[in-house]
Structure formats: structure tokens, C-alpha cells
Prior knowledge:
With 306 residues, the chain is of the alpha/beta class.
Amino acid sequence: MRIVFAGTPEFAVPSLRAAAQRNEVVAVYTQPDRPAGRGRGLQPSPVKREALARGIPVLQPETLKAELARDALRALRPDLMVVVAYGLLLPQAILDIPTHGCWNVHASLLPRWRGAAPIQRAIEAGDPETGVCLMQMEKGLDTGPVLLSQRLAIGGSETGGQLHDRLAALGAQTLADGLGLLRAGMRPVAKPQAESGVTYARKLDKAEAKLDWSQPAEVLARKVRAFNPWPMAEAMLAGERVRIHGAIAVPAARGAVPGSVLQAGREGIDIACGDGALRIRVLQRDGGKAITAADYLNARPLPGMA
């Protein structure tokens, strides 16, 4: 089976590997190289690096709306196009080219969390579970019928990065299952998404990672987990900006001013919130590395140390 794969970030790499098993990946589409790192030099995407390592031709158009882009895809004679976190919208003219259309691996249980950041939004919202869907793509944003799905419980202390890795592996397995059925002539049955329960996972914004101590501690603890490793929750602690890598919500007496230090010791630094307290366990000062609260306090004692 001739497959064209479209993807960009690390999340898509396991799916590319799955697509390359027992199929011919004739080309990989990925985002153009972007500036990255301290030197801001152009860097290839993780998917591009994987494709080049496998000797697969790479295409990096700025858009797929031009007729030239359609002609290039037609010339590849794809049986199927697999799309995983590509980052470009596919117009209907592109969706219609492959024999079996375009399949998308999406990291949520659709119709919940359509959009750009389903992994982080699921943790932030306190969802007990998530999963992946293999979807037949159509013009709308993540609106297509679901071919296969797999559920996954979200761990109580799981970060966005940890859940990302588990869902990337699950997505690759789900894709492999779907491709196996298609090769055997048993195309998965497309089931329309439910009309109720639709939510949208808006793109992450660095500004939203600034914690607001007036919010409940449970809400902030979920944000800390969701935004690790990016954009990483940050807050002012005794006049100093820190990034918070690990924290939990704990009970606290009412009446304390949100943002004030309730206590600080080896177990962590408790900060008063709108409801309860956030116990910071791992944090990072500007220019430093992530350290435990105990190590932080050794270098910078705070009022209320235990």
C-alpha cells in the first residue's frame, strides 16, 4: 500500500514508524524548518529527521492550497494519506486525492477535545481518561467519522509530557491496527461523532502558564501537570519568578492571603490559594535547573520554614 505521511512534532514519529511497517511510505510531508535553539538556526522537525533516516523523500510546502501542491500529491499516486499533528489545514481538493482518503491520528476521545492541544486540556480539565481516535478526515476541524479508538486512564500525577508519550505510542498502535484491516480488505467502519459533548482544545499560550493564586489549589495543580514540559507553569514566590515543575493541592485553613507562604520545609512550599494551598515540590529559578523545594530552601530560606 502506497502511503503519504504528513506530520511534524515528536508525537507523530511513532505513527510514521508504524506506517512504514508492511507499507510503502512514498513521501513525508512536514512543516518547513524553523528557527530553534540559542543560535536560532533552522532546525528540521522530528518527523523530517525520522524520514531522512529512513531514506523517505520529504516535502515541506508552506501551504497545500496551491494547485502545484495538489499536482505534487497526485504524482505520488497515494492509496492513503496519514496525517498526525501536521500543522497545516488540508483543503478538500487534497483530501480527495488518495484512493482511501486521509486518516488522522488524534489524541483525544472525539468529539471531546477537538483542536490543537487535546493532551494538555484533558489534564487541565481533570478528565479521568482520554485516548486516541483514528479518524477519516473531512474539511471540518476534527469533525470526521471515527474508524478506531482506544481509551487510556490519566494518572493522578501524570504530566503533559508523560501523557504525550503514552498517547503517541497508543496512536501508533491504533494506526497499525487500522492499516492492517485495510490491507486485509476489511476497512474499519466509519462511525459519525456524537453531536453532543463537543469541546475545543485551544492552542497553548505561554501567557496562560502564569498561575493565579486566587484560583483553587486543585485547579492550579492540574495546570502545573498539564503545562509540563511546555509552557511550564510559573509564578511569583516571595518576590521571585520561578517555574513550577511539580506540585500538589493540599488542605489549608481559610483566610490566608492568596500567594502568601503558609509554610516551607522538606515536604515542599505551601502557597495559599483561593481554596486550599499549592504545595510546590520541584521548581526552577531563572537561569537555574529544576531542583527540589528542600534544595531551593537551602539556598533561599523563606519565612515560615519548618
